[in-house]
Amino acid sequence: MRLAGRELTVRIEGRTLLERVGIEAHGGELLGLIGPNGAGKSTLLRVLAGLQEAESGEVVCDGEPLGRLRPRERARRIAYLPQDGEVHWPLQVETMVALGRLPHRRVWGAHEERDRAAVEKALVAAGVAGLRRRRVSTLSGGERMRALLARALAVEAPVLLADEPVAALDPYHQLAVMELLHEAAGRGTAVVVVLHDLGLAARFCDRLVLLHEGRLLAAGPPEAVLAEDKLRRAYRVTSLRWRHEGRDCIVPWQRCDGDATVGS
Amino acid sequence: MLLRKLPMAVERVPPRLLSGLLALAVLLLLVGSAATGRVTLPLLAAMGEIAAGQSTPGSIILLELRLPRALLGGLVGASLGLAGAAMQGLLRNPLAEPGVVGVSGLAAFGAVVAFYTGLSARFAYALPLGGIAGAFAAVALLYALAGRRGGLLSLVLAGMALNSLAGALTALALNLSPNPYASFEIVFWLMGSLADRSLGMVALAAPPMLLGWLLLARAGPALDALSLGEDTARSLGFDLGRVRLRIIMATALAVGAAVAVAGVIGFVGLVVPHLLRPLVGHRPGRLLLPSALGGAVLVLAADIAIRLLATGPELKLGVLTALLGAPFFLWLVVRLRGEEG
Predict the structure, then answer these.
(1) Mutate which of A59, A99, A119, A160 to test chain B, going by most B C-beta atoms within 10 A?
(2) What is the predicted ipTM?
(3) How far apart are CA A143 and CA A132, in angstroms?
(4) Nearest by CB: A102 against B92, B150, B221
(5) What would the pLDDT profile of B184-220 be if each residue is shown by its tens digit?
(6) Buried/exposed A20-52: b ≥16 CB within 10 Å, e otherwise
(7) Could you give the C-alpha distances from B8 to A132, A137, B13, B94, in angstroms and in order?
(8) How far is B196 from chain A (nearest CA, A)?
(9) Chain B residue closest to A148 (CA)?
């Protein structure tokens, strides 16, 4: 499975949100989408999910332009987890997760066995099988995010797009969710995740795409994309970095504007 | 809070059992409604006379008074219950009810216009069409004002504005009416009642209602998906533009036709889906059929009750549902506010 965006440009009310951005996600790979606030990460993810039209450029899913797929077919190929993760009724976790099977529904309700198996697998994979009877509204932030992720996993789509799934979580649950996404990639899914935490991006992602003011600033392996000069330019921060267990560790340390470090 | 404490087993009522029981209740109440009235009617004998083509007092009462009243009770109740459940699913808001948010009010205004302009006298379908046009305008406006985010407050405020608008427009029509007796009649009609309707009225209202039901019959999965928000619903393969249009049209057809023949019968679409929601695991899609049946049960039962209550002039059905529904609505608002805060 390969999801590719080419030369994507999005303008809304005269503002350019994305300008000629290219991106490629492959099956079996965890791709991190990083960049400062307003860089266009969520917009790019929505374009890849087919939720936002690009003014120019196209998204191609396994050789087929996304715009030419019927909504249901697109839904079977691409699972999308939005940033806010609203759940409007006091649904039980299992019921909510089962909504991920909607793209596979048949008029006469066939495939029920397969649906049940997919929901069960997703509940177990996300570690929320024990919470299946709980109402989503009573879950903690971390439990809730894992349940929402289980909903996206239940689609069993070859592509999974997740918008800031760890933003509001404590470190334990951040690691748990990142491990989950990593495992999903390990099972062959193409996972694209929007991240704010550079440490998690360095630790878990196979490749990173760095956006800055709607443009692609860098793409490639984490150690290349998270280079000091690129972070200075995109985020206006300096960072501490070291190696641990063969991976880069990175902690943003100080604000800087241009070459002058702020506050020192 | 109370509903949260109910045992989880309550959530697992098999959908077919629930709908079966409600359908049975509808049938019994239809018979009960036909049997209830000022004179005691031997139902079987009267039916036999109708079948034999005899014109006896019993057969006339059954055919021209009781039967239309019972049928309309079922049709109107089902339409209101279904419309309430559908609007709540679309707007993701348990307070969205045709009467509360002004849809019935504008439908009533549409019907009043059809009546006053004399259109309905020349062309019988003008009455339901007027109601449907008013309801459509209301649901579309409501969606534009409060649909996107599904906030509680914006919906209630938008509904308040629509209700005031409908009230003002209807008052204007009554105010300008050259014939005070006709306005008097309209005021009574607005209170909502199933009394003294003919089979012709049933034939007028049934087709648009059934069309509305049909449009909603396959909206369940989309409503389920919408409980996760619009973006997720689209990512699950739903064309939201079409879903919205379908539900808005269906609601307008059902509510507009119901109001055109029965006046404003409020709160049915609020109370019924709310009571049934826990029994279907809170899934908005699964709520549609039970709400339609439950709406029929409630309206038929209430309409039987006002005939059994020996008040001087018969209590209007809309007055009874409002008396029971308004406190329920208040209670729900207080509870939801507690959950939001």
Answers:
(1) A99
(2) 0.92
(3) 11
(4) B221
(5) 878 888 888 888 888 988 998 999 999 999 999 989 9
(6) ebebbbbbebbbbbbbbeebbbbbbbbbbbbbb
(7) 12, 15, 10, 21
(8) 41
(9) B228
